[in-house]
Amino acid sequence: MNDEFKGKSGKVKVMYVRDEEGGQKPNPRTGKGGRPAARQEDNRRSGPRSARTNEEGGRSGAPRGARSEAGGRGSAPRDARNSERGRSFGQRDDRGGDSRSFGDSPWRTVSRPPVADDSQLDDAASNKPVIDPEQIRRQRQEETRVYGENACQALFLSRPESIVRAWFVQSVTPRFRETLRWLAANRKAYHVVEDAELTKASGTEHHGGVCFIIKKRMGMPVTEWLTKASTKDCVLALEDVSNPHNLGGIMRSCAHFGVKGLLVNDASLLESGAAVRTAEGGAEHVQAISGESFADGLEAFRKAGYTIVTTSSHEGTPLAKAELPAKMVLVLGQESEGLSDSAFQQGDLSLSIGGTGNVESLNVSVATGILLAEWWRQNA
């Protein structure tokens, strides 16, 4: 086959044509340009170069041997390195896994641990701590949330040991520096969080930037209160008053006018988050008092020398004309129905607050503030 042609420039261009054995024919005019067939065959192999090793240990590739003879460069070291790389890098073990050796590379591939069988999973599940629902219920009954900056500041000053956990937004932390320091020193958990997370933790958007989980205070028995009472003592008795905002306003008025005891049906009502927040710190200056029943509590105070004073919107002695004793129990009921008949009949003195009559009655927290202000004026 003719292997030359002339281009436009008149120069001879040479083309090489593969023969049947995969080699290239040399230029018949010059005798040059041919390549050994073994080299070409070697290039067509699909395997990696590193795996082309001499299986018999004494034969290397033809191209490398020819090059060694022509250029004086030996091929044995390179072939040996290729052989070693083929053994250490490109081989696969009998199990089908890759047996590559990466030396000390930090990116070494780590195999996943084998999957545990059912028996191991059962053992692991059996070692998990079991949560007792009864314990959780009891814990929730013993704890409550308190929020609001003034309420939490007053609680920390009064009973820091009752704090279980705390949350703060970043903006209030400078004003709670002492609280944070105490919590850290006493290994109490606290979190500085975003407003949305504090809303979730406190259960309200009116958290004021801080929320505590605290241990509830229990109601003090009437007998114990009587052993500590002073010669001038006004106790407030609330029958079926449960609105937390009213309770908070009442506790705030009590703290302002020096009334320290509140006889209630359920002492935990005074520890609700909304009541404590509305009290603005006043909740820390009052103590819940509990008896066998509300009527029994009133009777115990009467036997101890206290005057039982009831209130009414339509009858009773006008407050401006009444003389209030130094030791008394002021009894108030809910706004809609007032005092029950049994509680009203236990009264030694009934009071009324005069006004225009344009409304049926005053809010119970407002009426409490007016009555306690008069007792404070006469007995302080």
Automatic annotation (TrEMBL):
Bias (Basic and acidic residues) ranges: 76-98
GO molecular function: methyltransferase activity
Residue segments, region Disordered: 1-136
Domain RNA 2-O ribose methyltransferase substrate binding: 145-220
GO biological process per UniProt: methylation
Entry-linked InterPro entries: Alpha/beta_knot_MTases, Ribosomal_eL30-like_sf, rRNA_MeTrfase_TrmH, SpoU_MeTrfase, SpoU_subst-bd, tRNA_m1G_MTases_N, YfiF_prd
Keyword ATP-binding carried by entry: no
Keywords of this entry: Methyltransferase, Transferase
EC number(s) stated in the UniProt entry for this protein: 2.1.1.-
Name of this chain's protein: tRNA/rRNA methyltransferase
Organism: Pantoea nemavictus
